[in-house]
Amino acid sequence: MLKKIALSLSVATFGLVVPLLEINATHVFNPMWPGHARLHEVWQLGTNSMIALVCLWLAWRRADIRSAAALGLIVVLGFLAAFVLGPTYGGSMRHSDGSELTIAGVNAAVIVMVAAAAVLGLLWARPAAPRRLQ
Questions:
Q1: Is the residue at 120 inside a domain?
Q2: Is residue 60 pLDDT above 80, yes or no?
Q3: Which residues have CB under 8 Å from 97's CB, separation 6+?
């Protein structure tokens, strides 16, 4: 049960929290963003939310924590790769107004995603419990 809860909280970061934080004037409805960029933003939010739902289904209905964790890792590691590669394409965690939420000088979203990656990585790396034959 603890593994399912840990997985659920981890995938909630990209499946629920990020959409709640980005469906507003700083992202989806930002008039400074070209329409094409906003389309990609909504696509990413929708895709990630649907992947989170699949992760929850795998964990809670199929008892397949490892597959759920692997799917979640794809999303979280994709974010972290985009963050690390940001300087190569002009990406930044700063908002259009120059603000950035940091904790001890580190972007808060990066801290959350590193924590989610650690949890999902541990859940993925641990061997699955043997299944009972029916």
A1: yes
A2: yes
A3: none
